Amino acid sequence: xxxxxxxxxxxxxxxxxxxxxxxxxxxxxxxxxxxxxxxxxxxxxxxxxxxxxxxxxxxxxxxxxxxxxxxxxxxxxxxxxxxxxxxxxxxxxxxxxxxxxxxxxxxxxxxxxxxxxxxxxxxxxxxxxxxxxxxxxxxxxxxxxxxxxxxxxxxxxxxxxxxxxxxxxxxxxxxxxxxxxxxxxxxxxxxxxxxxxxxxxxxxxxxxxxxxxxxxxxxxxxxxxxxxxxxxxxxxxxxxxxxxxxxxxxxxxxxxxxxxxxxxxxxxxxxxxxxxxxxxxxxxxxxxxxxxxxxxxxxxxxxxxxxxxxxxxxxxxxxxxxxxxxxxxxxxxxxxxxxxxxxxxxxxxxxxxxxxxxxxxxxxxxxxxxxxxxxxxxxxxxxxxxxxxxxxxxxxxxxxxxxxxxxxxxxxxxxxxxxxxxxxxxxxxxxxxxxxxxxxxxxxxxxxxxxxxxxxxxxxxxxxxxxxxxxxxxxxxxxxxxxxxxxxxxxxxxxxxxxxxxxxxxxxxxxxxxxxxxxxxxxxxxxxxxxxxxxxxxxxxxxxxxxxxxxxxxxxxxxxxxxxxxxxxxxxxxxxxxxxxxxxxxxxxxxxxxxxxxxxxx
Length: 602
Prior knowledge:
Structural class: mainly alpha
Strand content: 5-15%
Distance between the termini: 65 Å
Number of domains: 2
Number of strands: 9
Strand order of the largest sheet: 3-6-7-8-9
């Protein structure tokens, strides 16, 4: 094995070898981005763990080890894995029906569920099924990202105004709660958030490369502490458990595996959809390419290894990934630095982190949410494509008004449905030679030959498309009922299945029963191979299949009735001149009682 082959094999197994050498030039940006992400995840991790029914520290464990493994073995430079709202909710719904949330047995089942989720994800990646995610179009990603940004922002509004209600499960309910409680707003929380927001925007303006979000959160904390606003209702992160992840083997039980298999598959698919959609949405901004298979493997390994270190199921985090990108991260090393910073904070400076105002965190997250909205692509989509606009809007509205995990599915299914509908309707176009250069064109104003028609099929022929093709050929032929010869141009057909072949043979048989005939030209090798294997070539007959349209036209025009050609006022083909000359010569010979010329008849 050559050095090049060895390097290629190693980078396939260990994808971090592709970027690890660049850290020496980007480590400062990654280090500061990691610190910002670590500070942001402090309250998030605790909140998500509580949603999942787990003790608070488990949310922080899930923000460490999984983030590192996903960064090392994934393909995105900016994706940060960790606990998410959707997965936390699914875990709670799945396991709380079995045992008491927060109990030792609950924790055991959650870690086993995480291990099974990771195994499912890894198998999907190893089987190279990451291409499935390509069916999630850019319009779906834009709609989902925009909707998620609004959801994230709406969930932070209560912290921004210092309100005390519990967030609802749906967007509309959250806005309703905000309106209902806004009269109780805390002016000091609002001022803290406003100052934090001002610092973010100011630092970005004067020093774009500085960690604006980190400075803003520290500035908000200094303001709240120096002004004594904590005693006036400004909430802070508060004391956090100063613990680090510990190694533990999930308890394997056949009964537990059987019970958890269904939710494990659901969480696996949800996690993959979330992670790859987030990675792709950020990649659209950064110009990076995402490898779906590698992301599947990275997410699978992150959950497998994470389950061994007390982490529950994780996926890509919209908020943390957005913060990571906005904070200037250059490589996946930022995720590793974030995990190291978080561990250091929990070990050494947890008491200082407790002073961070929740309002400052909310202001930073609002900036992140705004940055997630791709206004340029939204405007472009509205202007250029009604179909993509419909997909984007449906996904956006589904994100706001349905369960988050279903929003991507709805958008993806609609996108796939529209794609299949489009492929099931290949173009069936009548073709005639253009007057001057004789190129074949589709022009209803150009004359057609009364004996011979030409149709080009542009698209693949498979079971779902054949009804459309047959109907359109019948419709086009109805406009020229005198045409008894039809040439089907197949140069734009790339794929055909057995149903397509059988339908073509059926059309040929139907034409022949009506004293007409169909010929083919320009068939590509894959299509010809299947036609030969299926016996269709024998039924159609070899002399009815031509390699090129030029050869087909030259042969078929010469076979047409010379008498009809003599009466035709048009010159559709170049060969028409010879046919008309032959018709006139034949008529003259007949008039003078001369033997007809075999040369002219040919």
